[in-house]
Specification:
This is Cupin. It holds the Pfam family Cupin_2. InterPro entries: Bacilysin_H2HPP_isomerase (IPR052535), Cupin_2 (IPR013096), KdgF (IPR025499), RmlC-like_jellyroll (IPR014710), RmlC_Cupin_sf (IPR011051). This protein has 114 residues and is an all-beta fold. It has a single domain, classed as Jelly Rolls (Sandwich). Helices cover 0% and strands 57% of the residues. Strands 1, 2, 3, 4, 5, 6, 7 and 8 form an 8-stranded antiparallel beta sheet that branches.
Length: 114
């Protein structure tokens, strides 16, 4: 398990966005070896392409409207809705409207720190 850890308090004004391309950017909100939280911002029409990872992902729609697909099932989610992605499940996101997802991963995503 990773021994890296963010500060205990993460102030939005002190955290930088990472441009992921394709109208998507990410800001890390806190992590240790067991868990990581990130804010993912999508421009309207941006696509988080289908992928899988060994981490459990629990997410909430902070703003906007998204079509979320998990293991072939799609649901339209709006502000306040959430979803759970089991480990290794194929999943994707399409921003129907511009918006933000608040993603939590267990364990942390080492690849997000590279």
């Amino acid at each position: 398990m990773a021994d890296r850890q963010s500060d205990v308090f993460i102030l939005d004004r002190n955290s930088d966005w990472q441009d992921l391309g394709g109208g998507i950017r990410r800001k890390l909100l806190g992590y240790n070896g067991a868990v990581m939280m990130a804010r993912i911002e999508f421009q309207a029409g941006a696509v988080g392409t289908e992928h899988s990872h060994p981490h459990i992902q629990c997410s909430m729609v902070e703003s906007g409207v998204f079509d979320i697909t998990i293991n072939g099932k799609t649901e339209r989610l709006r502000t306040g809705d959430g979803f759970l992605v089991p480990a290794d499940a194929l999943h994707s996101a399409v921003a129907v409207e511009a918006g933000v997802l608040l993603d939590t991963f267990a364990p942390m995503r080492e690849d997000f720190l590279a």
